[in-house]
């Protein structure tokens, strides 16, 4: 072959290879540019939106001291509240203590009236279900990328999906902002509108949803809305990641609506206050338990019940969003108690509409799954219910929402019980009999829930601290951005059964000391500090660690860093701590002794017997 021909062929081959390389680079660049994520809409829980109180001119209302009213109840200054309580309730309560009888229920009526006006006076709705005062949620009708820094920070503080943002970007994350006490149907309509906005802004054909707590009720209403409009929800929704949802309401709300605060002495004079007060206030909880017995037992219960009844009847009755938080089984009784008057017609119709959605929500989800919607569920369990309602020791729960509601039907036993040794897994919704869906503590059979292969459980996690569990947040983020993640077998780091943890305090402490120069410390302290920091880093990086181990890691790092700062307790502090420990033990002893011998009676009730 002539040299010129060879040269020509070489040039042609070079051009071909260069052209192919350019095409390859262009293809890779195009692929990188076109990596798309389904936009995700967070539907937060009750009172997690930024809802503000405005005057008639649209200006945010201020308290007497010039500061804005704080959500969710927009309470007046403490001095004004105390003054009102003393003026209206002190005399009736004093009369009851002197006479040891609430004559004509004066104390009950006074306390109920004060509590109702103070707590719920500004959030009351009218008969149509709309707020009497000018209460509005700050609208987030676009992605977080387009929000102000203040609004973006608020949304990410409420639901810290930073891991999702790192992968999918702020432009793909939406936060549904709403007033929690409004119309459940209007909340569903608002969510539908935001779905269309997210699709339009991102150009994606579908969205992901992350309903959290009360957001689970709004999602039920959304499914009903689609059916009412003759639409297929699968045309708009790609994935749904439910996070501790009130899918069948919350038994604690139902109990309060029907029966008021519990009259169970083991709760009222025992577990109620210690369960809701901080660890350093336990002495006060037991002291109050003893002081409550100066009220006649029956009259005390009547005061509590009358207060709940007044709150519902006079202030909260016209919120269909709150009616959505009742269970399907208990709604009819509560409806009969509160919603049968003519002026309740609008709310009754809307609550009935939601009852249909609630009764059918699991069937609707299964149908949507058959049409291609992928469902995931994150459940807190085995904390029980807060000891304020009759079901407090009867249901497995997370303090607020019972496990059956969160898990979409998983079978569970109360926290103090375990599944029998001969218990056979139900496999109601699990097609593979070799799968084990019973938790290691033998509290839950997840195979009875409608999505056993994609439902995750966190043992001992409280409802109110869910957002503080970084593993739950990382799991939700993973579900929302990673389409290859399909369920409980996708990643060993996210098993079906996991543990409670409150991660923020450990993360914050670790970050505060991450750049500390330990070279000036003694050898012993330097080594202990390094080991504590290593353990903290391992705990933070882990996605599976028993609660006690995680708490021990935090306690060790706290103690070491306090020692470095010279904050070891002095003799005065140690004496005070020791005194409070002894005082707590003494008051607890007498509180439990009175519970054993007096039950639900006050001191005067026993004296009258003799």
Structural description of this entry:
With 610 residues, this protein is of the alpha/beta class. It has three domains: 40-50 and 138-499, Rossmann fold, CATH 3.40.50; 78-120; 504-564. It has 21 helices and 13 strands. It has helices at residues 3-33, 78-99, 106-120, 149-158, 162-168, 184-202, 215-228, 251-259, 265-276, 282-291, 297-316, 320-323, 331-338, 345-370, 403-407, 470-481, 504-513, 523-541, 547-564, 571-598, 603-609, and strands at residues 40-43, 51-54, 134-137, 173-175, 207-211, 237-243, 374-381, 384-385, 398-399, 411-412, 444-445, 455-459, 497-499. A seven-stranded parallel beta sheet has the order 4-1-5-6-7-12-13, with helices on both faces. It has a two-stranded antiparallel sheet with strand order 2-3. Helix 2 packs antiparallel against helix 3 (106-120), helix 5 (162-168) runs parallel beside helix 16 and helix 17 (504-513) packs parallel to helix 19 (547-564). The longest helix is centred in the first third of the chain and has 31 residues, at 3-33.
Name some characteristics of this structure.
610 residues, alpha/beta, seven-stranded parallel sheet, single chain, two-stranded antiparallel sheet, 21 helices, globular, 50% helix, Rossmann fold, disordered N terminus
